Structure formats: C-alpha cells, structure tokens
Amino acid sequence: MKKKSLLKFISPEVSRNKFTEGNKNFVYLVNKRLKWMKKYTKNKSYILEFGSSNCLSKLVLGKKVVCTDIIKNKFINFTLDMNKLDVPKKYKKKYDVLIFNHCLHHSKNPIQVLENISKKMIKNNGFILINEPETSIIFKIILKIFNHEKYDDNI
Questions:
Q1: Sign of the C-alpha dihedral computed for residues 89, 93, 99 and 102 taken in this order
Q2: Considering the entire predicted model, what is its pTM?
Q3: For FRET with 147, which of 4, 57, 61, 137 sits at 20 to 30 Å CA-CA?
Q4: d(CA 54, CA 62)
C-alpha cells in the first residue's frame, strides 16, 4: 500500500478562510502563534517566513512579510526549500528578520539550516524568530509509533 502524503489533504485556502471568516478557535491559535512577533518586526523592512503555506503571518504581522514554502500556492511569494537553500542572488543578505513558525522541525538538520540562512539570507544585524510546537511525552510517543514526519527527538 502506497503511503499518501499529508500535503494533499492540507489546503492553504481552507485554513486561510477559517481565519478570514473568523473561526474563533482558529483565529485564537494563529494569533497565539504569531502576535508575539509583532514587537520584533514592527520597524523592520524585509521579513521572510519559511514554510508559510497559507501566509497568515502577512495578515497578522503586516503586508511586508515575504512568504515562502516548498510547494507553490497562490499565497506564497516564491518557493524555497530550507534544506537546499538555493537562494537567488537578489535575496542574499537582504532580510532583517527570518521567521520559522512551526516549520523548522521539518528540516533534515535544523542546525545546518540555521547556519546556512545566517550566511546567505540575513543581514549582519538581522535576527531569526523561531516558534516551534511544544509536544508532550505522550504525543512524542504517538508520533514515533506512527512515524509521522519521520519524527526524531535526537536531532
């Protein structure tokens, strides 16, 4: 039996509609994930988010956020694979702030990704905002049993 990809079942448009239509639970969760970043991005000109999918950061933080993801959709400014990081010259050393919102755990080697982006994409005085999911020990065990996203606590 061929394993199906979760990406086929996650619709950026559906989740974005939940936010714009005011689904109270979803709006609360998105704001909890992103609103704390406002004070760090307030006076910054160039902000890039990795793994944006539905690009809700642009709605919460402002239109100056450049949204990227590994798969193109209508909300993404351009595709970018954080594991390969083939960055066009016009984007090198451009950004004041880089955002990893619930996506760094999808990388093969988070430390290498952070080293690469700090060399290639971020300005000298720029910084990185990271928001990763917190998981309980029980949830970690479930992820391990089902091999979800090749979850590994040892990376």
A1: positive
A2: 0.80
A3: 57
A4: 14
CB atoms within 10 A of CB 107: 18
**Tens-place pLDDT, residues 36-91:** 999 999 999 999 999 999 999 999 998 889 999 999 999 999 899 998 887 778 88
Q: Are 68 and 79 in contact (CB under 8 A)?
A: yes
What DSSP element (H or E) covers 66?
A: strand 65-69
**Which tokens go with 14?**
């559906």
CA torsion, points 115, 120, 124, 126, in degrees to nearest 10?
A: -70
The dihedrals phi and psi of 64, each to the nearest 5 degrees, come to: -80, -5
- Please list the helix, strand and coil fractions of the chain in percent, rounded to the nearest 5, in that order: 45, 20, 40
